Amino acid sequence: MQGESSPQTSLTLLSRIETADDDAWRVFARLYGPLVYAWCRSAGLQPDDVDNVGQEVFRVVVQKIGTFQPGRKRSGAFRSWLWGVTRLQILNHLRSVKRQPVGKGGTDHHLSLQRLEQESQEPENVDGVTSRQLLAQSAIEILQAEFDPRTWQAFWDLAVKGRPAKDIGDELDMTAKAVRQAKFRVTKKLRELLGEDSVGFGRVDVPPISPHN
After folding, report:
1. Three-state DSSP class for residue 209
2. What is the tens place of the pLDDT at every residue in 163-189?
3. With contact defined as beta carbons under 8 Å apart, do 179 and 154 qualify?
4. What is the pLDDT of residue 156?
C-alpha cells in the first residue's frame, strides 16, 4: 500500500481513527466499506441510496467510534457494533422515504422497513457471501501490495485453494517449507488487520476471487 502505513491490529486501527489518523481511515474505509454497502444493498436500497446511506454510516462512525467497547475478545463485536450503526441509518432512510408522498417509496420500501424493524440481527450473508468472507476479501485486497508475487501466490494456493505445499513449491521453485512460511507471513498480517474477526481463522475463507484482484 504505497503512501499508507502498514495496517495495525484491528483495535489499534480503531484507536487511530479516533485520533483522526488519515492513513488509518483510508484502511478502515477499504476494509469495512464493501461490507457496509453490501448491508445497504441487502436492505433493498437503490444504488444512489446505498451511496448516500453508506456515507452517512461512516460519518456516524467518525463521531461515535469512541463509544465502542471491545469487551472480552468476543468474535465479531466491532462488526456487530457497525451493523447497529448501519441498521439505524438504513431505518432512518426508509422512514424518511415512507413519509414522502405516496408513490415515492412503494411497496418494496415498506416491506424493507417492516423487515428491518422486526429483525435486528446482522444478516447471515449477502448474496450467499458472509460478512467474514467480505472482510477477508477486503483485507486480502489491502495487503496484496505488501508481498512479492511469488509469496502471494504461494499463500493463495496453500491458504485459499488448499493445495499441497510440495506441489505449489514445485511450480514456484520454492521448498515446501518456504511455501508454508509464505502462508504464515500473509496470514499473520491478515489476522492483525481483521482482529477479532480472525478468531478461529484457519484456512482462509473468501468468496471465489482471483489472487491478482
Report:
1. coil
2. 999 999 999 999 999 999 999 999 989
3. yes
4. 94
Dihedral, 177, 180, 185, 190 alpha carbons, nearest 10: 180
Q: Which of 4, 7, 1 is nearest to 191 (CA)?
A: 7
Which sign does the torsion angle of CA 199, 200, 206, 211 carry? positive
**Is the model's pLDDT at 107 over the cut of 50?**
yes
As a whole number of angstroms, the distance between CA 212 and CA 24 comes to 24
Cα dist from 79 to 58, 84, 131, 147, whole Å: 13, 9, 8, 27
> Cβ contacts of residue 183 below 8 Å, gap of 6+?
154, 155, 158, 159
Burial 177-205 (b: 16+ CB within 10 A, else e): ebbbbbbeebbebbbbbbbbbbeeeeebe
| Helix, coil or strand: residue 192 | helix
pLDDT band at residue 192 under the 50/70/90 scheme? confident
Query: Is there a contact between 137 and 207 (Cβ–Cβ < 8 Å)?
Result: yes
Give the whole-angstrom CA distance, residue 194 versus residue 56.
Answer: 23
Alpha carbons 25 and 17: distance in angstroms, whole number: 6
Grid coordinates in use for 54? 453508506
Q: Are 10 and 189 in contact (CB under 8 A)?
A: no
pLDDT of 101 > 70? The answer is no
Q: What tens digit of pLDDT does each residue of 47-83 get?
A: 889 999 999 999 999 999 988 887 655 567 889 899 9
